[in-house]
Design brief:
mainly alpha; Herpes Virus-1; 4 domains; two-stranded antiparallel ribbon; transmembrane helix; RING-type domain-containing protein; metal-binding
C-alpha cells in the first residue's frame, strides 16, 4: 500500500483508473480514508491519486470510484460541496441542509446583488444568506447581528491589545519582539503607526535618519501609553536627526577615503612591482603576491580609520553630553532610560543602518 506501506493482498489493492500504475496502488481502507478526509475538508476538486505528482501522475478519482470507496454520508457531502463550488451563491438550510439559491434584487441581473432573506424550498425554514441561522429572520435582525459582531470584534481587540493589518484587516496581537510585523497575507507593517511598509522602505522607516520614523523596539509599558510614546518618539528623532546626518557624512567620508587610499596604494604597489620585476621569476612569487595584497588592503583600511577615528570619537562624546542634556529637557514628558540609550546610540545606529541600506540597494 502506498499510504500505510503495509503488505496487503493484491486483490485488496486499488489503483485509480486514470493512474494505472501498480506502484501507486493502495488498500481500499487507506484509499477510502484518504478520499473521505479530503471530502470532509471540502477539497472535492483535489480527490487525486495518493502519489500524484510522482512519475508524472495526475489521476483523479472518478464519481464511480468514489461511490465504490465512500459511504453514503460522505458521498452526500461530496455532491453538496461540489454544487456549492460550482455555484458560490448556494446556501445550505441550517435545518435540513438542503441547498437553496437566493433571489436576485433584479431578476436576471446577478450584478444587482441578492436578497439576504431566504426560505428553504424543502422545509420552509427562513434563514439569512450571509449568516445562515445565526439570528432571527428579517433585515433588521441581520443588521443588528452585524453590529453585535462588530462590537464583539472591537471588544476582543481591546482585550488582546490587537491591531488590524492595513492590507487584509485581520486582527494581530503582539506579546513581545520588535515593531516590524509580517501578516499572513505577506503584508509588512509597523506596529506603532499601523502603516504598511515596503521592503525597500523597511530600513528607512526604523532608521534614526528618519525624523518621522518609528522606534523598532518598544516595551509593553510604553505601548500602553501609545499617544505619549508617539509624541516622545517623534520629538527625540527630530532632535537626533542632525546627529544622524553628521554621522552619515562621516560614513561617506570614510568610504571615500578608503577607496582613494585603495587606489593610491594599488598604484604604488604596481610601480614597485615594475621596479622589482625579477621577483616575478622567483618560485615564491605567489606567496609574495598574497602578502602584498594583504598589506595593500590592510593599509587601505587602517589609514582612513586612523584619520577619521579621532574626530568621530570627539563627535560621539560631544553628542553623548548633548543627548543627556536633551534627555533632561524631555524628562517632564515621560522620557525614560530607554529614550536616553536610543538617543546616545544614534551615531553607531546610523552607521549600521547606512551599511544596511547600502547593501540593500547594491
Amino acid at each position: 500500500c502506498s499510504i500505510c506501506l503495509e503488505n496487503v493482498i493484491a486483490s485488496d489493492c486499488v489503483v485509480l483508473e486514470g493512474c494505472d500504475r501498480e506502484a501507486h496502488s493502495a488498500c481500499k481502507e487507506c484509499l477510502g480514508t484518504h478520499l473521505k478526509t479530503r471530502v470532509v475538508d471540502g477539497r472535492v476538486q483535489d480527490l487525486c491519486c495518493p502519489c500524484v505528482g510522482s512519475d508524472g501522475c495526475s489521476a483523479h478519482a472518478t464519481e464511480a470510484e468514489l461511490e465504490r470507496l465512500l459511504d453514503a454520508g460522505t458521498m452526500a457531502k461530496y455532491w453538496r460541496f461540489s454544487s456549492m463550488q460550482a455555484d458560490t451563491q448556494l446556501r445550505a438550510c441550517p435545518r435540513c441542509d438542503h441547498l437553496n439559491s437566493p433571489q436576485l434584487r433584479v431578476p436576471g441581473d446577478p450584478s444587482s446583488g441578492v436578497i439576504a432573506e431566504m426560505e428553504c424550498e424543502a422545509c420552509g425554514t427562513a434563514y439569512c444568506f450571509h449568516h445562515s441561522g445565526a439570528h432571527a429572520p428579517g433585515r433588521d435582525a441581520c443588521a443588528a447581528y452585524d453590529r453585535a459582531m462588530l462590537l464583539e470584534e472591537r471588544r476582543a481587540a481591546c482585550q488582546m491589545e490587537a491591531q488590524k493589518c492595513p492590507r487584509c484587516g485581520i486582527l494581530t496581537s503582539k506579546a513581545q519582539g520588535c515593531n516590524h510585523m509580517t501578516c499572513q497575507c505577506k503584508c509588512e507593517w509597523c506596529w506603532v503607526c499601523g502603516r504598511e511598509i515596503s521592503k525597500a522602505g523597511l530600513q528607512w522607516h526604523f532608521s534614526p535618519l528618519n525624523p518621522f520614523g518609528c522606534a523598532q523596539f518598544v516595551d509593553k509599558t510604553a505601548q500602553r501609553d501609545h499617544n505619549r510614546l508617539m509624541m516622545l518618539a517623534q520629538c527625540s528623532r527630530i532632535l537626533c536627526w542632525p546627529c544622524s546626518l553628521v554621522s552619515m557624512v562621516f560614513c561617506v567620508v570614510w568610504l571615500f577615503a578608503f577607496f582613494v587610499m585603495l587606489l593610491c596604494v594599488g598604484i604604488v604597489g604596481a610601480a614597485l612591482s615594475c621596479c622589482c620585476w625579477p621577483l616575478c621569476l622567483c618560485q615564491k612569487w605567489d606567496e609574495y603576491l598574497d602578502r602584498i595584497l594583504w598589506v595593500w588592503v590592510s593599509i587601505s583600511l587602517t589609514l582612513p580609520t586612523l584619520v577619521i577615528a579621532p574626530p568621530v570619537l570627539v563627535f560621539c562624546l560631544a553628542w553623548c553630553v548633548l543627548a543627556f542634556l536633551l534627555w533632561l529637557a524631555m524628562l517632564p514628558c515621560g522620557a525614560d532610560s530607554a529614550v536616553l540609550l536610543e538617543m546616545a546610540g544614534v551615531p553607531p545606529a546610523t552607521f549600521f543602518n547606512f551599511l544596511a541600506m547600502a547593501e540593500l540597494y547594491d
